[in-house]
Design goal:
single chain; Rossmann fold; 6-stranded mixed beta sheet; 10 helices; 23% strand; binds adenosine-5'-triphosphate; binds magnesium ion
Length: 279
Amino acid sequence: MTAAKPPGQEEDDHIFVDRVTKSFGSTHVLKGISLHLKRKKTAVIIGGSGAGKTTLLRMLIALEKPSTGHIWVDNEDIAPMGELELNRVRQKFGMVFQYAALLDSLNIFDNVAFPLREHRKSWPARRIREKVMDILKLLGLEGKENRMPSELSGGQRKRVGLARALMLEPQILIYDEPTSGLDPITSRMVDDLIEETRDRFNVTSVVISHDMTSTFRIAHTAYLLVQGLVIASGKPDELAYGSVEAARAFIAASGVDPKQISRVDGAHDESATIKYKAM
Ligand SMILES: Nc1ncnc2c1ncn2[C@@H]1O[C@H](COP(=O)(O)OP(=O)(O)OP(=O)(O)O)[C@@H](O)[C@H]1O
Ligand SMILES: [Mg+2]
C-alpha cells in the first residue's frame, strides 16, 4: 500500500508514533509522545515502573487505541481503523512475550506450529512440519521438538517464543522485557539473538526493557519514558552523556558503565547459527 507520507514523519520511519496521548478515565498515562521507529533498526524503550511502556506497546500492536494522536505504520494511521483493517495490520507484528508465554500443555513443536494452524488453515500438515523444523534448526532447537516447555532452560524458552513469533513472517518484532528473569550470560545471548534475528529476517525491532546493558548493546535509538513523556531520545550514548540531566541520572542509577559495554555488531557472519546453538 502506498499512502502519502504524513507530516512530521522522517525518512525510514516504519512506525511513527505521532503526538499520542492515552488516558484511562482521569489517569493520564501518556501525555503526548512521538517516536520514530526506523525500518530494520532496533529501538529500545526504557523507563521506570509505571512510566507507560506497556501501555505504549499495547497501542503499537493495536490492542488499545490512543486517546488522541496517530500511529502510522507504513504510512497508514491505525488509530481510527476498525477491526477488519486492524486484523490486516496486526499481521505485520510478531510479539515475543516477557516469559515466552508458551503453552505448558503443548510440546515445543506444537507451540511453534500454533500460529500456522490458526492462520494458515489451508496448509497441509507436511508444509507446517517443514516450516517449524526449519526454524527450530535455525534457532539451534533441533531435537527439542518433542520436549515440553518445562524441560527447557530460560534461554531455550526465549528462542521457542521467538520461533513462534517468526512463524507468520512479521515485518516488526516487539519484545517485552526480553532479558528479565535471565542470568547475565543468557541475557547477553538474548541481545545477540535479537540482533541476529533482525539481520537475518530484515525486521524492525522494538524492545521494551529495564536492562541498561542490553540497551547499550542493541539500541540504535533509545527512548526514555518518564511519567508518560519521552524526556530523552537518541543513541544510548546521547542519553548517557547528553544534555538531559534526568536521562544521565537514570542511566547512572542503573550502575551500568556504558564505556564497558560492547555493541552487538557481529550479526553479519555465518557463525550466527552457531551462536544460537551455544545458548
Ligand atoms: N487499563 C488501565 N486502567 C487504568 N490505569 C491503567 C491501565 N493500564 C495502565 N494504567 C496505569 O498507567 C500507568 C502506566 O502503566 P504501564 O503498565 O504502561 O507502565 P510500565 O511502564 O509498563 O511499568 P512497568 O515497568 O512496571 O511494567 C500506571 O500508573 C498504570 O496504573
Ligand atoms: Mg510494563
